[in-house]
Structure formats: C-alpha cells, structure tokens
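Aim 2, interim progress. The first record below pairs a target sequence with its structure tokens.
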Amino acid sequence: MQNRTNRLRMLSSALLVVTLAVAGCSSSNSSGSSTAPSSSPASTTAASASSAPKEPITLTVWMPVESQQLTYYNNLAEAPVAKELMKRTGVNLKFIHPPSGNEKEQFNVMVAARDLPDVVMGYFDGYKGGASQAVKDGLIIDPKDYIKDYAPNLTKILNADPDIGKLMKNDEGQFIGFGARVNNDVKRGQGMAYAGPMIRKDLLDKAGLAVPETIDEWYNVLKTFKAKFPDLQSPLGWSDMSETSYFIASAYDIPNKGWYLNGDKIAFSNIQPNYKTYLETVNKWYKEGLIQKDFATDGYTDKVLPLVKTGKVAAAPMHLYWYGVIQPELPKDFEFVVAPQPTLTKGQKLHIRVDSGWGVLMANTKYITTKNKYPKETIKFFDYLYSDEGKLLTNWGIEGESYKMVNGSPEFTEAYTKEIAKMGYLYTPNVLKERIDDRMNRMQYKLPIQQQGFDLWAKQSDTSMVLPPGLTFTSEEQAVNTKIMTDVDTYTKEMNLKFMMGVESLDKFDSYVKKIQDFGIDKVTANYNAAYERLKKR
C-alpha cells in the first residue's frame, strides 16, 4: 500500500488544475441554530485529550483533494490544520490522495484488489449496489451501532434535528452518512444565493440602457453591446459555471440538466418541452455571437474570469466568491452591478437556484473499511469534527495564525485574507469540514455588491424545484440507473451542445427525446420517484 501511496502522491502533484476553493458553495444548512464555539484551541486541547486513544494509532485515509491544494503541500497531513487536529486527538493520519481526474478509476482498482485503507472518503455511494451492497460484500462496516456510544457530538446533532439523520441513513436503515458534512446553521432554502448574473453598468450607461431583467431585455442589451462595443470578444461570458447559477434555464422552470422536482414528482429536465425552449434561447444568442464562441470547452476560472478582468466580455453568471477574488484586479473604470436572474416576465418567481442552506453533503462520508482495526477510535476521531471545537478548527483554522477572536466571534487574520486561496487550503480545507459555520461563509463576502447579490437572487427565487437531498436506491435500481444513464448522459451532453451551437437543428428535438426514451429513461424516472416516496416515509 505504501508504494502505491507514494506513486499516487507523485501523480497528484503533477496534475495541477485551477479549481473552485469555496466553502460557501459546497452544500446546504439546518433549522436549528448551532452553538457558537466559546473556547480557544489552547483550552480545547485538554478537553480533547480525554477522548484521545490511550496509545497513539495511525489511520490511513483515502481522500481525494483538489489538485490545486497539492501546490502547497504533497499531502494533507502536512497542512497546519491537519497537524493541529492530530495533536488534539492523538490520532496520526496518513492520507492517500488519488490523482485528480482519476479518482474513480483508482477507487475501482483499490476495491477490486481489496487493498483497502482504514477509511475511504466518498465513492462507495457509486459502488455497484451502493454503500449497502458494499456492507454486504464485506468491504465497509455500518457504523450505526457505534454512533450512540462513540459519537456524542453527532448524536447531539441528530437529536436536535432528526431530519439530518434521515438524510444520513439509507432506506434499509444503515447509517451510510457518517462523516458527511452537515450544514445546520440556517434552514434549507434560506442560505446564501451565491451565484447569478453580473453586468458592466458603465457600458449600460454609455448605451443608455437599464439593468436587464427579462430574457428579452437581456437579448436586447447583449445585441446592443455587440454593436456598440467592438472590442468585446463577446457580450456574455459563459461556461459550465452557468450550470451552477441556472442562468437562463430557471426562467423556464427547468434546470440546465438532470433531475428536478416537478410538483410532487421527480422528472428528467433534458426531455421536457420547456427544455427545448431553453435550448432555443441559447441557440439564438449563440448564433448571433452574443455568447463566447468556445463556451462548451472554456472553464470558468481559467477562461471566463480572465475575460471579465480584461473587459473582453461585459456580463457573466458569476460566483460571488470569485468576484471578490478578482475585484481588486479590475480596472477602475469597470463598474459591475448584480442583475436579476433573467425571467420571462417582470416579477416572475423562480423556483431553481443555488443555495448554501440546510442539508448534508454525502460526498464527504467517511466509510470505515473492514480492514480498519480501530473502528471505535475512528468513530471517536471523526466525531470530534462534529463538535463545536472541531467546527471552529476546520472552519477557521488555528487561533493567532488564521483567525483571531473579536468580541467573542472568530475573524480571519490579515494574513489569511491576503492570500485566501492558499491559506484556505492550509487552514480550512473543505475536505476536513463536517460542520459548516455560516459565519465563516458570510465572512468571505464582505463587499457590498456581494451582499446585494445574495439579497436580490434570494428574493426572486426559491429552491422548491431543486432535487431533494437524501435519495437512495436499491441495488437493483442502482444497476438499472447506471446502465441506462451512462448512455443517456453521454447522448444528452453531446446533443444539447449541438442544439445550442446550431450543429443540429432543434427540429430534431422530438427524435432526440424518442431516443432517450428508447434508452429507458422512464425506468430511471420510476426509480427516482420510488426513492423519493421512500425518503418521505423515513
């Protein structure tokens, strides 16, 4: 295992990409308000020591990380926050980081060889038959029987809000969500709406135009920009990030792709009549040169943000965190303002948007393998991250280095905010968080324009059509879903881009839908709705 670990480290270090490093966009939050941590690391170390193992143990943890992190260290164990965590708990950590982009492949190889570490973060939800089948196959344990005795902090959370527990269990009652990230500082649907459109007001003023609100107004503004400002590469910067903000699509009560809640039933967006209308809008804008030519392959941070900074685009769906990052680099004469999410009619209520509200991020589940000789100690260790102390540590880092206490509340130091991306990886990496501190989320958005974005996008939209969290499938359902959706996902991605770019006529939309139906999408839809009914009955 050690040789393989070293190889993975070397490969990981070589594969560097620009990725999103934001805590505020990662998951969702709960109705109960969390207790603010009242003690500093100096006082918590002693408290943690009482629950530390009598003799030091070492846990090997297979944990994918953003490749950008590995520009600051070769292994997460080298980060100051990880060192502090090991110091407090008396547990040594050896992380195995699979190469970025090859996580699934490496996971499959590891499982097939049964060359398992002590803990695997995520990925067993994608195991054939899901985590419940992995338990039956003797790969991982169900920690349910350990939680009551060895996870007091998580137990406290579950007692305060049983709905959290419903999301962390599957339909068979197995506790498959231990170690998952919990956001319970605010209610679901009431978190920050952190992504939406922004536009150059200085150009609007020069063109004599108001901030656009509707799809038609956006079209008119973009056409005018293209005619009046020839230095623009395109009026609108767009990439996969627009899928996060549901830019344009939400006007048609549809997500950009995939599954959503349509009334009290789950539906597949890509075959709906209103999805065709959404595609027609994008196709029209693209055909007239209003959207950047290579939006299908352009990344958000590596292509769209530079276009925003250099003035080559005049508007873009923006993540407010990243706007805060690039804002100091913008020319002084660039005046950006937040714009409403486009609607079909003025005052239209939208029902699909991003939200940092209540929920559980199951991608962070810590699966304890059957090779683990210390299941009780492992439960205790990861339960520490659910404590108030653990929440303070993983969200804010180390007092005096990354944060300081001001009037009883933590605030990031100047050193942290000066190099927020680097310091975030060193002191507050998302992969270690098991409770999100809403104060930390909001701390990253200090610009007035960011607060305006939150308020505007939240007021005009809700999350009533967003797919509910916590759906789990039987092994038979998962097998059917995987087989069918492999073909569906490949085909829809290819055809949707062709429709948007005019490579394929939208006159063929009906035949496109028929082919997806022939793949068996109705069977998958039935499985989603069966899972939804089971979720409601948990």
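The second target in this work package is listed in the same format:
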Amino acid sequence: MNQINFGPILRKVEETRIILDRHIDDVEVQIGDVSSDLSDTRSDVAELKSLFETFLMRNERQRLIQLAETKKASLKDELDRSFGHYSVVRRTSVGMLQAFDVGNVRNNTVHQISEELMIQTPRYWLAPALVGLAAWSKDDKELAEKSVEAAFGRDPKKTSLFFALVLRRQHRLGEAARWLRHYFQSLDAYHLTREFAILQEAIAQAAFGPDGKQLVMENLETWREMLSMEPEIEEKQVSQWVGEVDTHRGRINDEDFPKLSQISPTWSELKEMLEKASAHEFILEKYVQVRDTNTPLTGSSADRLDDLLDILVTEYDAEELPLRREVLFQDSIIEHDGDEVRAREQADLNTQALDETLDALSLQTQTAFRPHLLGVSTSSQKIAVSASRVYFERGISRYTKEYRAKAPHEAALDFDRSHSNYASQYGFTHWSTTTSVPQEQVETGLREHWDSVMHRYIESMRFTIKQVILHIFVAVLAVLLGIALFNAWQLLGLLVLIGGAVIPTYLIHQKKKNADAAVEQAEKTREKAKDVSIQLYREASAEWVDAKLDYDDADAREEDVLDMVKGWPL
C-alpha cells in the first residue's frame, strides 16, 4: 500500500491558515472602523432628527403664517364687499360737520348727499342721522324730527351720543347734556355696548365741560358700586387681568439651555416657569409707557370733537363683529410667528373687546387692555387703568401666586443610553438624579454606575471556558467523522480530520484575541466615558443655576409692577 505524503497537504493547510488569519485581521479592523462609524452615525442621526423636527415645526408655522395672511386678505375683501358702504357714510359724516364750520358747501348739496346715503344704507343708524343734520341746517324741523326718530329707532344709544357730541361741538352745552341724560337712560350697566368707550374718551378730552363730566362720573360711580356687589363680575375682572399678564410672557428656546433641555425630563416645567416670570418685565414696560405718555389737549374744541365723532362713527357695528373677530385671530397667528396656541390665547382676549355688550367694569378693563380695538386714545386708557387698578393688583398677585406654586425647586436629570456615544456603545442603563443632590454625591454615583455598566459589558465580552469546551466538542465530532470517512474516502476523511483539529483551535485563538481586544478597549475608554457623562451633568447643573437666577430676577419684578399699579395717577 502506497504511503501518503502529508507534507504538502500540511503546508497547504498552514498557508491557508495564514492567509485566512490575515483576512480575518483585516475584517476585524474594518469591523472596528464600522463600529466607530456606527457610533458616530447614531449621534449624527440623533442630531439630524432634532434638526428635522425643528425644521418641521418652523415649516408648519410658516405655512400657518402664509395661510393666515391669505385668510386675512379674503376676510378684508368680504368686509369691504359687505360693509364698505358703511365707510362712505362714516367719512361723509365728519366731512359734513367740517363743511358746516367752513360754510363752503351749499345746504342743497349736503341734503342731496345725505338722502343718497340714506337710500344706499337703509339699515345703518348713521344714515338717517346725517339726513337729520342736513334738515337741521335748512331749518326743516319736520324732516329733522323724522330723521332723528329713524336713527334713534335703529340705534338709540349711538344716536344719543352722536347728537350729544354734535351739539357740544356747536357749543350748545345745555342741549348736549340733555342728550347725555337721554343716553344714560337707555343704558344697562350690565350690557353696555362698545360706543360707551367713546364717552370715556369724551371725559378724558374734557369735551362736555364740568356739568357733563359730573353727569358721567356720577353714573360711572353708581355703576361701579352696583357691579362691585356681584362676586362673579369682580372675579371676571381679576381673571381677565391674569390673562392680560399671561399674554405678555416671554419665550424661552431650548437652545438657551441646551444641556438641561437634553437630559431633564422636567425641562418643560422649568421652561414654563421662566416664561411665566418674564411677563412682569413686559407688562411693566407696556403700562409704564401708557402712564408716561404725554396726552395734552391740543387744538381747538372743534378739532377734538371731530376726533371723538370720528371714533364714534368709524367704530364697528354689531353686524361686522364676527368678521372682525376672525381677522383678529389671523393677525394673532402672524404676530406670534405661527404659534397657534399663543395666537388663540391672544385672540380670545382680543375678541372680548369686540363683544356686542359688556358690563361697565368689563368695559373699563378692556379699555385698559386694548384701547385701539375700542377706538379710544391713551387718555381713556389711563382713566380705565385707574378705575381698574384694584383688579390689576389682584390679577398680578394671583398670576404670580399660581406660577410660584407650580415652580419646580429642583430639576430631574436622566442619563439614558442616548446621552453619549459611549453610553450607546457600551449599553448604558438608565440612571437619574436631581439638581438638589450634592455634586460630589452625584459624580460618585455616576462613576459607580459606569463601573457597573463597564463590568457587565466586559464580562459579556470576556473569553470563557464555555467557549473552549464548545469548540473542543466540535473538534472531537470532526475528528470522529474524519476517522469514519477515512476508511472509505481517505483524502476526504483526512481533510475533515485535519480541519476538525485545526479550525476549532484557530477559532478559539481568534475569539480569545477579539475578546481580549474588546476588553482592553473598554478598559481604556472607561474613564473617558465617565468624564463625558460627568461633564454633561456639570453643564446641565450650571444651566439650572443660571435658569434659577434668571427666574429670581424676573420674579422679583412683581414688586415693581405692584408699585406701579398702586401709584397709578387717579
């Protein structure tokens, strides 16, 4: 029987093993690179996700702004179609009064224009009032009385105030006072319509003289005493002032506190606290400007009354209010950069000023908030704030008390697997603390937790006897199979026999090598991993301190606001 020369076969096997070993080393290097790249990729993906979410939010807000601008234009077109003819009447009324002063327009012309407007706007109270003025200029008593009755039937309150202003403009104070009394008789302190704000403007402008002012102030004081006996109405004023303050809160971005917003699950509560407290500064700025605005009574009496008349005749009628409210909402969306939540809060407060009826206290409150929506000047706003200062003070105190009760005294800090690349790579398990825990204790606990994580990781990677036994078992099976095959197919059996002995040994060697490398790498990066987490904790803690200082500074401004309210000029 010929002897088999195993030399060439063994050399071939050895060469194959060397080549295989080199390729596996190359693969290990590539796997290491891939592992590192994968860790970096996770970080990049997390950052990309954050940027994408920010992009989506901004894109959605931009879409809402564009939509609001489109809706606003459409609403204004509808207002112009439906009520544009009212504007013609409004402009004509002031022009007609000025024409009477100058005397450069014939009575017939005034009469003709007023009758045309009456035909074009039969439901509008101002149209027959203008016909009455034209008839009065021609001494046509019968037509004047009919026209006044027609205007009074459409809107007795506005008509009474209109003629009171017109007569005062003509220096007929006695007749003006009679129209004012008639006006007050038609009023319900619980359901005042918006033109009553014009009366406050008249008081501020000293338009009706001492007698007229006394009449107005007596009625206002009577209403205040009566309405202050209603707890629900008083509570409504305080709540509205709370809402007014809240709409002036600032906006805090996550980028202002990047580390704290990253790892604190209570960040949203802290963020709200900072925004709430910031309202004091903005509300103080607004009302100090109102208080300090110089509002001299310049110009002639006729000029001032023209302004008052213009306010009266150009303020919105009840039919227009639904469309005006929707325009306000779209304006709020644009003003708040597409933030629908804040826009709705602002619009809800604004639309209260456009309610068809308000009680006397609420009208004062709304005049203090938004005089431009009621068509009055800063002079009236000053008077309204003065009349509402007790509710202003209560509103500030309640607002501050509410957010202080919810203000967190510490921030929770959560470290999960995503807080760093090392945490993701080594399977960091959740660990949490709070900013109230001493720094030394936190850092010690965080280091100990990292030691536990690394120990678990190292033990999972360490080469064990179980792996050796498994490969020995496979080798024994391969040797037995090779012996069995050798009798029938010598070459095949020999290859199986050699493979069964060499390959498991090689795999054991490679697995041990890989395991030792992983363990060594983990030991090398253990301290770096701890340092990254501890640095994140320190930066988040520093941001918490900064946030608390910002909060304390903003919160302390409450005293300045209260001092301003208490010292408001009467």
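Confidence is low (pLDDT under 50) at residues 1-6. This observation will shape the mutagenesis plan for the next reporting period.
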